[in-house]
């Protein structure tokens, strides 16, 4: 059976361990997406189809996209959803990312999307920003945030994004998921209030589902391709990319423990220096990215 799991990037817990991303599945909606389930309610407007609107005029990479009605504006007083479910993995699930591209066209700070999650097959649901004690969640690029509150009080995404935006969602578990839960379901909710705005809704394409796997869970022949020193450091770190030769669209990102990107620097050679003197003390995740794909991850301590 094909391995499937929800999403995109992960970071290892130990400073001395390194990891690589394991892409387990992806969906461009031209064929069956086995981890995705649309709500079967008659009022659900999520569908997979060819966009035929003004802003939502085409899919991102092929013909079809996941869209709140491919032809009509979204109705009032609507709540529609689709769910992504982790059904199998050979690795311990500590951290993951979801990556996708999207457009939105909704009534700002009122209609549009938020995410909740279930760990017991859908019996109980937790808001993405209010997780049980074994989990800690982050939202990153161009998606959920505390500054965008919908009409139902949920933190979400709303307004108009007429050009395709690349989005990442990251989540980390304090305890491996298999220890504390029997499943993981992530539900994307679209909501609208009682005011008709004749807007187009929400469109998603090119969902990618990956897991960052620690090297001690892979083959002993795998060698880390990134070296960071000194750690801890007060002012400057050196980064050596020992096995990377193609630096096209490559960059280094530092992410703090709140999930915020605090530093981004292009990478053009195998040895790079970063100044971290301006950063607060603490632990930072280091991501090596290329073409918006995470190639390697590590950690560094600022003292």
Largest sheet composition: 7 strands, antiparallel
Question: CATH H-level name of the largest domain... which superfamily?
Answer: Galactose-binding domain-like
CATH class of the largest domain: Mainly Beta
Number of domains: 2
Number of helices: 1
Structural class: mainly beta
Structural Rg: 20 Å
Average predicted local confidence, pLDDT: 77
Coarse morphology: globular
- Euclidean distance between termini CA atoms: 47 Å
Helix-strand pattern, N to C? EEEEEEEEEEHEEEEEEEEE
Structure description:
This protein is mostly beta strands. The chain is built from 1 helix and 19 strands. The chain has 2 domains: 19-215, Galactose-binding domain-like (Jelly Rolls); 223-302, Immunoglobulin-like. It is 1% helix and 45% strand. A hairpin with a 7-residue loop joins strand 7 (112-118) and strand 8 (126-127).
